[in-house]
Design a protein that fits this description.
187 residues; single chain; alpha/beta; Peroxisomal Thiolase, Chain A, domain 1; 5-stranded mixed beta sheet
Amino acid sequence: MAEPFAYLRQDQPGPEVLALLGDLPKRWGRMDRISRLAVVEVGRVLRDSGLLREDPEGLRAAGIGGLIGAGRFGSLATDLEFAATLAGGVQTASPLLFGYTLPNIALAEAASHFGLTGPVYSLFSGVLAEAEAEARRWLAEAPAPDFMVAGVIDVVPVEAAPHSGGVVIDAEIVAVNFTIVRPECPI
């Protein structure tokens, strides 16, 4: 059986992941792990819901969609890695990691890759119901997106959150659960 989330460490992911992504995102090689997780798992939920279509730019969302990601730890794993590069002074700080030290970057990478042009932002919460409620709020607005991807997503060092749930991979806890929220039909 394949190791879960093996693609988080792979500069060239396998065929199953490439089938979800179409083309590998241009920044894949320098993405942090939570961004890779967001891109792949958003692709997975879009595919499973029949919301991916092929166009000249690659696999794109079918319709106007948004993305709400709820995480308890934001970009903490990347923030800690970036802080470690500062140990030798400002001159040793990693510019590649710095670009991923905002909690919304992972979601922006996924939205950009799949052409999600609706609202895209993160909540500091690890509760799926809160992300879904925020998605429903957007779907009730006029004009509303056609659908919203909502879910929880975290990558955090085990020592920072030893009991947070998820799958332990390379001393990090990985947790993700995205779903599609559609507008409610009036009766």
